[in-house]
């Protein structure tokens, strides 16, 4: 019969899989449009580093198979996302992203692995890598803070989807239970932080879910309506001043528009 920790770990692997695959839709649009537009690659680079370190931690930890599988899958997905960004990003963003990848995912990760295997004894290896993993995961879980700040500022949850927030909360919760069962303190600390941030996000969602549009969006719409109204007023004034010429121009413009539309069907 499978142990409780193994069952919880399998559930955690399944939930984490769906979390890791959530950006697929975003990067499908990137491939389709052949452009990264305004998307930022830094969160994916940091997540790639974090999952890579946790995979290494799982390899060092006795009985760490489920830690290796979940983070190995996560690292694979993040590697694909970062690669797609490097392919389709503008040149300036591509160069900056490549430097970050070289610094963090190659340089820093390589140094950690080298120091762990070559300079530390067996008992210190797990402690050293575990502390680094705690720090990296804390940064990853802290990334939603900017989204929460935006929600509070705009009083709208349009930039913080409920499904993603709930998935992150659920993911942190299940791994917190797993860490408590196997008594792994390095996994416990970031999981507690993830649960707390998840609860805050869900509270913010409950507070602002009835406000579908941000203040910025509302102002933009009002400005657009105002601009259209001014444009119509100017057109009316031109028509009043020019009289028949305006009607003539409208007819000619209408004929040109018809001709242009006919050309589209030829």
UniProtKB/TrEMBL annotation:
Keyword Transport: yes
Transmembrane segments: 6-27, 39-57, 63-88, 100-120, 126-147, 159-181, 187-208
InterPro entries reported in the protein's UniProt record: SWEET, SWEET_rpt
Entry annotated with the keyword Ribosomal protein: no
Subcellular location: Cell membrane; Endomembrane system
Keywords annotated in UniProt: Membrane, Repeat, Sugar transport, Transmembrane, Transmembrane helix, Transport
Membrane topology: Multi-pass membrane protein
Extent of the signal sequence: none
Gene3D superfamilies membership: 1.20.1280.290
PANTHER family per UniProt: BIDIRECTIONAL SUGAR TRANSPORTER SWEET16, RAG1-ACTIVATING PROTEIN 1
Biological function: Mediates both low-affinity uptake and efflux of sugar across the membrane.
Recorded family membership: Belongs to the SWEET sugar transporter family.
Protein's UniProt name: Bidirectional sugar transporter SWEET
């Amino acid at each position: 019969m499978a142990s409780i920790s193994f069952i919880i770990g399998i559930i955690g692997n399944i939930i984490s899989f769906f979390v890791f695959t959530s950006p697929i839709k975003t990067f499908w649009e990137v491939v389709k449009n052949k452009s990264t537009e305004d998307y930022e690659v830094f969160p994916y680079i940091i997540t790639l580093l974090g999952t890579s370190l946790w995979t290494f931690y799982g390899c060092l930890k006795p009985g760490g198979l489920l830690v290796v599988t979940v983070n190995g899958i996560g690292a694979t997905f993040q590697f694909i996302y970062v690669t797609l960004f490097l392919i389709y990003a503008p040149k300036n963003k591509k160069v900056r992203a490549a430097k970050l990848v070289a610094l963090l995912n190659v340089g820093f990760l390589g140094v950690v692995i080298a120091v762990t295997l070559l300079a530390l004894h067996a008992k210190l290896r797990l402690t050293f890598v575990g502390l680094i993993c705690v720090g990296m995961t804390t940064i990853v879980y802290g990334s939603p803070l900017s989204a929460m700040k935006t929600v509070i500022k705009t009083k709208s949850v349009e930039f913080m989807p409920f499904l993603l927030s709930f998935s992150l909360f659920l993911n942190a919760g299940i791994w917190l239970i797993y860490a408590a069962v196997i008594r792994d303190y390095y996994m416990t600390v970031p999981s507690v932080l993830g649960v707390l941030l998840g609860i805050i996000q869900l509270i913010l969602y409950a507070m602002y879910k009835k406000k579908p549009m941000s203040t910025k969006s509302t102002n933009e719409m009002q400005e657009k309506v105002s601009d259209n109204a001014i444009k119509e007023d100017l057109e009316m004034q031109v028509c009043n001043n020019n009289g028949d010429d305006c009607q003539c121009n409208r007819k000619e413009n209408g004929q040109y528009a018809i001709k242009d539309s006919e050309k589209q069907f030829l």
